[in-house]
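The protein record passed on for reference:
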Amino acid sequence: MQDSDKGFGYHSPMTFNFSDPMALAILAGGLLALLIFLIILSKAAGESEQNVSSARGGAAAVEEKLDFVGHINAGNNELSQYNYDQAIWHFQEALKFKKNDASVHFKIGRIFLLKEDPNRAITAFQNAVKLNPEKIEAHFELARIYKEQSRFQEAQAAINQVLAINPDHEESLKLQAGLYLRQDNPQDALPSLEKLISMNPSNFEYRQHYAEALHRMGDTEDAIEQFLGLMGADKTNVNYYRCRIAQIYFETGQFDRAREYFDEVFQANTPESHHPKNRETMAACLCNLGVTRQNQGKLDEAIGLYREALEYNSENEDIFYNLGKALVEKGHLTEAIGYFEQVLKLNPRDVDTGYELAKVHDAQGNLKESIHYYNLCLSLNPSFAQAAFGLGTVYGVQGDFNESMKYLSEAIKLNPEYVDAIYNLAVCQEKLDLKKKAIQLYKKVLELDPGHIEAKSNLAYLQQELS
């Protein structure tokens, strides 16, 4: 019976055998799982608590509102980090506490300048000066913006406001002088410059602007005197002042004096010696001296000056042209052609140079080239009577009298008193046996030039022949 009872519903209590390896493994696994679960549960609880804490902190921050000083400090902080929009927001919030604070409006104006929004900056600065008419900085910023926008009257009014408050405001005096100079009114700039110089006698920039203003007024002697004074006082910029003196002499046509000062600059081999503008002016100065010598009949000296000018500027067409003309006068026609051609490379539409080339080729008997350049002149200037005359003459030399008459007639149409063209047309008509027409033209020549020997001779011959 005992065995039967054991078989139906009876369970003996389970026992754990600690000596069994399998049992130990199962126990260890269970403990590890329990430990991991507890760690996860603890971490989740910590994060939940932290989130609650953060939420409470955020709410507290939202609930906490900044006052005027708080917004000003926050705005300054954002500005230091170049967060312009956030800075403006804080300053505008600050104005809700003190809407009549001119300094805050000024700060907003400065930020709009940094944002390159001058029109909104103007509004802010205008608000500042309405609230505080003594706010020099706002008046000055308005003056600067107005000047950049070429609103000169408004700029001057703003400067006047500054100087009414502080007559010695240096930056405004500089701005005022610059404003007058920009409007090409150097006379009105002088008082501001004189005051700046009296305030800062050792400021060479002010003295230089003063000299430039005198120069622009046409007071060249005083301007040169000022630059000479600067040469003695400012040894580091002596050659710059020499250039300015040379420029003044050049502009007033005193080319020899200009060359003297430029020579010293180029001999010194300073940065000014390599400045393109100085080199160009030196070249132009030498070219003008060459023209003067050429007009005096001193061709060799003129040619030397032109060649020297090319060393300073090899892109100046006037130098090439004048050198070519001087060489023609010397009889060096082939060399002259090269310089005239250089002019056309620089300026293909230079009709005067085309005409010179046509004449030189004509003189050398290069009739094909001569015709080419005369035609070039007429294409550039259909009213160029001399070119039409040249073509008519070349065709006449070639015996093509009909073509010659065509261009000579055109020259006379352009200039009815063109004696040489009328005479050559008469010759062509005589060659074509149009003797009566030739006689009328010879008479016309003598009406315009009674001493024309060839016309007298030809007229007498034809009249005798027809009688």
Summary: The mean pLDDT is 89. Residues 177 and 372 are 57 Å apart (CA to CA). The chain has 25 helices and no strands.
